[in-house]
Design goal:
Number of domains: 1
Structural class: mainly beta
Shape: globular
Low-confidence stretches: 1-55
CATH superfamily: TonB-dependent receptor, beta-barrel domain
Number of strands: 47
Number of helices: 6
Helix content: under 10%
CATH topology: Maltoporin, Chain A
CATH class: Mainly Beta
């Protein structure tokens, strides 16, 4: 029997002709192309006898439009990644997800940088990689909305016990609000199930190339019905990834990481004594726990309430950084010390660098089916907080090349042989959101559908960063220095000035944000196979930024001072779609995205005074023009293709000004143009199937911009410049093979390859660091392999990521070839990991 379309308008009768008459040239052309190509099973052929081995690919149901639809019915670009796909391709978090979803990217610099990194879709991003001081958190609103279920979330967490992940490409300002400028990322967790006791456990152990320790993880999930109307579900996973970087040149410093003074090799000589250097093998480890509990109450068929709590804790040491170019030899700050040569998986770091992050999400989802529509409400409260210790020693010494005499303010004159410059970053965010939605219940014959809603958000974020030079002020006193150092002065004007704990710089930043908005989408089914959707959202937003900082060596205190802004904005959407054959759709879309404007509490006087024009920055808006084709055949072949043009006004750029002050500012205009392709199908050979995806996005400035920022330099953008953070080309291919080995024993093989072209990491050089061009990262091509055998409730598998152990530079050194080459520290990808896993389900 022929399968009917699941479209809400599918109550009509199909003719025996696979394509309707060519009322539109696009539909006719696509119809001809699809049906003139030989298919294993066309939409009009009766189902052939299925092979005994290998399941047919199933249709995918998503909730991107706030109602259940098949993937091909959603009239814009959406990619859905199932739980099986996540497991088979080694995806554990959003960073690894970007390798499997073309057009989705981020700066993959390790989990310790999570708070300073936003996801990027279709290249809609101008903020540079979080080098230098921008390591603690983002300043601008994310260009991509990230959700667990219906709840916005920040922080770090693993993708564990989820149904699927939905990636909504392009501006989603109507249903998903501010912060969905480039799209939305929805992680759909599994909910409790009534009347079913079930669960499972799984454990794995593995080997990471270039590491002396094993990786391991353990996970479990349980679903417990509690009477007839309640069900409880709990899941958790702990994952340990050993380090693969060996660190050298760590100065022994008892006590606090920010203020601990280096130990003297010769306590009798506090001025000239060397330090004591140590090292750590497998330095950059990471341990992560993510857990979720949820309670479902369903006293009526039409009503449900789900209370959920998600918790994540991740900590580690160091990061995936290595210096393969240091030739070895005398330590430039103390030639009496000899360092070994560098290596592909070796780093030279003068301080240890522990880090930690915790994320909590509490949410309550209520839903009532009133017959004509479903009324639902989502309340959520999310907190995330973290701290990290980073090193600025070699970077600051390297600045002496472009700003001679600067490092002496921190390291003394002559330079302290035990000089270190730790930086300690802390951040936290607390966000409450409330959304109420009324979604019409689609039924055959209804001419109209709608979504109406109100949204409220209150967010408080704060961050602080401190830089210290422990031991250098004490050494300058031991030298006999009596007056502070100034550019070019000599003894006795060589005193290193610092505050308590030898902190020489401290800055804090607090932000408060409120968003009140109303939104709606109205769909008219003006023909049995055609519909048009009109959508809009009205925002009212308030934002306040408060900063304070101390610069001890310049005797500069900037008390806490605030800047505030208010914004009112409307965004819109028009979406026309047409089902020209069974399960074959064509659509045209105009949609807008919006991101809040805000304020920068910058100094206007003193050495680090900034241009007053930078005190505020405007909202940015994206207009997306998109046309696409989507479809599915009875044999499981599914496809989606679209072309898009996003015109971006006042793009927001966050970064470090030439003074070192942090700020957000506006460019003039930018654009992202390209296309995307998703394809999945069983192959002609029984048991084989393939999933393909590709994206091309040419994202660039279309107008110049210029700010005379301060005495240290300017901030500029040039028309034609490629925007940073995403490649022009990304592609992924996954080949699956399913077969029965023996009665009751089933095998699945999955071979996956992911490609990314090169990408820029910024749009302007950091003048104070002496850069002459923005930083740039090369492309990559990585493969993964998995093999899983299932038998009854048991499953066992082997999983290999980065099969060829390819070393890829994710971010090149910020200040190359300085301090004898010690600044050649590049961020690299994870090496090959082989893992054995055993699981049991009941």
């Amino acid at each position: 029997m022929k399968k009917k379309s699941l479209s809400p308008r599918s109550d009509h009768t199909r003719t025996s002709t696979p394509c309707v008459p060519a009322k539109a040239s696009i539909g006719a052309a696509v119809c001809f192309a699809l049906y003139s190509i030989p298919h294993p099973l066309s939409a009009q052929q009766p189902p052939a006898e299925q092979p005994s081995e290998g399941p047919t690919l199933q249709e995918v149901i998503v909730t991107a439009t706030r109602r259940q639809q098949t993937l091909e019915e959603v009239p814009y670009s959406v990619t859905a990644v199932s739980a099986d796909q996540l497991a088979n391709t080694g995806v554990t978090d959003i960073a690894s997800l970007t390798n499997q979803v073309p057009g989705l990217s981020l700066y993959n610099l390790g989990a310790r940088e999570t708070s300073a990194i936003n996801p990027i879709i279709r290249g809609i991003n101008v903020t540079a990689a979080p080098y230098s001081y921008l390591n603690f958190r983002t300043l601008e609103q994310s260009p991509v909305g990230v959700y667990i279920g219906n709840s916005p979330i920040d922080g770090y967490f693993q993708l564990e016990d989820v149904q699927r992940v939905e990636v909504l490409r392009g501006p989603q300002g109507t249903l998903y609000g501010a912060g969905a400028l480039g799209g939305a990322l929805r992680i759909i967790p599994n909910s409790p199930v009534l009347d079913k006791f079930s669960g499972g456990v799984e454990a794995g152990i593995g080997a990471v190339a270039h590491s002396g320790q094993p990786s391991y993880d353990a996970a479990g999930v349980i679903n417990i019905p509690l009477g007839e109307t309640f069900a409880f579900r709990a899941s958790g996973k702990y994952d340990y990834l050993p380090g693969f970087i060996d660190a050298y040149g760590i100065l022994e410093r008892p006590g606090s990481g920010i203020s601990g003074i280096p130990t003297l090799a010769n306590p009798a000589d506090p001025v000239n004594s060397p330090g004591i250097f140590t090292g750590k093998n497998d330095w950059n480890y990471q341990g992560t726990f993510t857990g979720r509990t949820s309670l479902l109450w369903k006293p009526l068929e039409r009503f449900s309430a789900e209370l959920a709590y998600t918790y994540s804790h991740v900590d580690g040491d160091g990061g995936p950084v290595a210096n393969s170019e240091f030739p070895g030899g005398p330590y430039p700050l103390d030639p009496r010390i000899t360092f070994p040569h560098g290596g592909d998986y070796e780093a030279f770091v003068p301080i240890d660098q522990p880090w930690v992050r915790r994320t909590d999400l509490t949410s309550l989802d209520l839903s009532y089916d009133a017959g004509f529509a479903t009324l639902s409400a989502t309340s959520s409260y999310v907190t995330t907080s973290g701290s990290t210790m980073l090193d600025q020693t070699y970077g600051l010494v390297g600045v002496n090349v472009s700003v001679p005499g600067l490092v002496q303010y921190y390291a003394g004159t002559p330079i302290n042989p035990r000089y270190v410059n730790p930086s300690f970053f802390q951040d936290s965010a607390h966000t409450f959101t409330q959304e109420i939605r009324l979604v019409s219940n689609t039924a055959p014959g209804n001419p109209f559908d709608y979504v109406l809603g109100v949204f409220y958000e209150h967010q408080d974020t704060d961050g602080s960063w401190a830089f210290s030079n422990p031991g250098s002020p004490e050494r300058s006193v031991a030298q006999g220095c009596t007056s502070p150092y100034l550019f070019g002065t000599t003894f006795p004007d060589c005193l290193v000035v610092a505050g308590p704990g030898d902190v020489h710089f401290f800055q804090s930043d607090e932000q408060q944000f409120k968003d009140k908005s109303v939104f709606g989408e109205f769909t008219w089914h003006f023909l049995p196979h055609a519909q048009i959707t009109l959508g809009g959202r009205h925002f009212q937003e308030d934002f306040t930024d408060t900063q304070a900082y101390l610069l001890y060596y310049a005797f500069l205190l900037l008390p806490a001072h605030s800047q505030s802004t208010s914004t009112s904005k409307n965004t819109g959407k028009i979406d026309l779609s047409y089902e020209y054959a069974t399960n074959q759709h064509v659509y045209a879309l105009w949609s807008q995205g919006f991101r809040r404007g805000s304020a920068n509490a910058l100094p206007l006087q003193g050495l680090y005074a900034e241009n007053p024009i930078l005190l505020t920055y405007k909202p940015d808006t994206a207009n997306n023009y998109e046309v696409g084709l989507k479809g599915r055949f009875d044999n499981g072949l599914a496809y989606a293709f679209d072309v898009f043009d996003i015109e971006w006004d006042n793009p927001q750029v966050a970064g470090t000004l030439p003074t070192g002050n942090l700020a957000v500012w506006n460019g003039n205009k930018a654009r992202s143009r390209g296309f995307e392709l998703d394809f999945s199908s069983p192959l002609f050979v029984p048991g084989w199937s393939i999933i393909l995806g590709g994206s091309y996005a040419q994202a660039k400035f279309t107008e110049n911009y210029f700010y005379a920022a301060d005495a240290f330099g300017n901030v500029v953008g040039t028309a034609g410049q490629q925007l940073p953070g995403s490649p022009k080309i990304s592609a992924v291919a996954t080949l699956n093979y399913d077969r029965t080995l023996l009665p009751g024993y089933d095998l699945r093989l999955s071979l996956n390859d992911t490609y990314r072209s090169d990408m820029w990491l910024g749009t302007y050089p950091a003048a104070i660091l002496g850069q002459t061009a923005p930083l740039h990262a090369p492309g990559m091509n990585l493969g993964n392999l998995s093999a899983t055998v299932t038998h009854a409730a048991w499953r066992a598998g082997v999983y290999v990521t980065n099969i060829t152990d390819r070393r890829v530079i994710q971010a090149p050194p910020e200040e190359p070839n300085r301090v004898g080459g010690l600044t050649n520290l590049a961020t690299i990808n994870e090496p090959r990991t082989i893992q054995l896993r055993l699981g049991y389900s009941f």
